[in-house]
Amino acid sequence: MRVLKKWSNLPIRLKFFSVFLTIVLFAGSGMFVLNHQLLQVARDNDKIINHSVPNLTTQLQIKSTIMERINYVMLYVTTGDEELHKKFIEASERAKSIEAQLKKNALPHEREGIEQFIIHSEDWEGILSNNVIPVYQRNNPKDALDTLNSQAQPLAIELMNEAEELSQQKIHEISNDNKKVLNNAWSSVQAGYIVMGGTLLLALLFSYYISRSITNPIFSLLSGVRRMTKGDFTTQVAMKRQDEWGELSKAFNRMSQSIASLVEELKQANVRLREESHRARESTRLKSEFLANMSHEVRTPLTGIIGFAELLHEDAEGRLSPAQKNFTRNIVKAGEHLLTMINDILDLSKIEAGKYELEMSRFDMVEMIRNTLIIMQAKAEKQNISLVIETKYPTLQVMADKTRIRQILLNLLGNAIKFSHAHSVVRIIIEQSEHMVIVRVADEGIGIEVEKAEKIFEPFYQNDGRLERKYEGTGLGLALSRQFIELHGGTIGVESKPGEGSVFSFYLPSGKREAPTPDTCEQACKKEPLLVLYTADFLGSFRDFSEKIQKGFRPFLSFMIESKREAIEIVQKHPEYDILVAAQSFQAGYVDMLEGISEHTQGRIFSYIESPLRFVERGQVMRMAEYIPPSSDDMSDIISKTT
Length: 643
Ligand code: ADP
Hints:
Blueprint: H1 2-9, H2 12-79, H3 82-105, H4 108-137, H5 141-229, H6 244-314, H7 322-352, E1 361-364, H8 365-382, E2 386-391, E3 397-400, H9 402-418, E4 425-432, E5 436-442, H10 465-470, H11 477-487, E6 491-497, E7 501-509, H12 521-524, E8 530-535, H13 539-551, E9 556-561, H14 564-573, E10 579-583, H15 590-598, E11 605-609, H16 615-624, E12 626-628, H17 636-642
Parallel strand pairs: 2-4, 8-9, 8-10, 10-11, 11-12
Antiparallel strand pairs: 1-3, 4-5, 5-7, 6-7
The protein binds adenosine-5'-diphosphate.
Adenosine-5'-diphosphate binds near residues 415 and 473.
């Protein structure tokens, strides 16, 4: 057990190394045993080839020399040919050398038999040399032949049998040795198989173990990551290992702990922010109510003052001096300026208090702009400025509050003329995208620094204190314009370069679809579900978000998406549903994803992005989807906008 524990705590590289070493050692020692056995087989084989086989050959040769010798002697004593006697002597010498070799090569267990054979052979040859040949040479051929037939011949046969027995013994031994070699070779082959099989088994077992010891921690880390993806940031991975995986799991656990505490902090910060924004909204509402009441109270006497000053200025009886006429004109002008300002403040307060109501109607934007331009023409001509309309649309129907849109346009054109140099051009460009009508007012005037581009939309902000004296104004026009446009569900912003000019653009929903109506269950519950697709960065806000949209009556299906492809796959399954794409912040692929989705749905596309967008980003989003501003406090608002 302790060894196993020690083993599992080893660093992965050491584990790999020791496993590799074990397999190599096992295979190496197997090969060593195998080689040893093969060597033995080769030696046995060598013994057969170099020793036993030559011995057998010698034994066979000896048999033929016995035959040879007796035949020479037999022919000699019958023919008397001396040549045959010589050949006998030569054969005897050959036989002696063969016998000497036989004796020399004899194995210990053969030695006795061979020596016995040599004694018998010498005895036999003694009979031939001493009892047969000399008797014949003493002219006693008959006795010589008798001795040959009665003694030498039977002994030769016995000797041949003895030689035959010796060679049979040798053949038997060779066959035994051969069997032994074969057996040894077969055992070597078997040992080879065992070593190979064992190595293979060992390698398999180790690779199974190693792969398990790598994949197991990967799986447990993966399931931890999955739990985190589903929002369980407190998730911990249990891994009691001391190796690299153990380190990784500890790091993962530390990371999830810090994410969990971050999420907790964020939630608390969110709650605090919400409380604060609620308080801020409440105080804004009170302020706006106060301002609305005040403005109303001031407007009535002011209208009276202007009326009486105008009467005075008309001077029906001609009693005013030129200086006095100048005073009365200034009173009227200042009164009118004050009245405009008060009216603007009143409108702003109403909007902020949520009491402003648009008077929506369908009208032709191009025509309205042409008419507005006529009003501004005189003012522009005074400063030698030309007003030009650029559009490819002869008419453009929109659903909006015509008076307010005209007011916005007057303000933008008024500013463009006010901040332009003489002999320059102010262009009004009218464009259209799928859901939006876009109007741009471009001048070649003094321009605005980038960092001021958002500030000028704040109430009472005027770009430069010094300019205030040079250019008339209240600092309320743009603030009011933004409020009016946003009430329409649109957006307004500026792109500018100091010294080169500015382009103010507003995007207005073209109102091809009817304006949203308040949500009720009768309307919303009957609709198909809303498809809510949210990006991974929105995960933290999703729980709150979904709780809030549940307050709306429309059923919804939600999916987390990590790529444009995933989003399209989901949309393709429900092409008829309306889609709401929610994200924490505007990111690079967001508009591209909206575009991808729009190609696969027949439903409407809504975009909800929690953190505020820059003007350009808003414009990009609004070209592809209907934009739901994050200011919606009660999220059932969102649902009502999608119904
Ligand atoms: P007002 O024009 O009455 O001062 P606005 O809200 O219309 O108030 O404008 C706020 C400020 O924005 C202006 O005082 C000016 O500094 C700046 N501004 C507006 N339009 C332009 C423009 N076309 N060129 C340069 N600056 C501009």
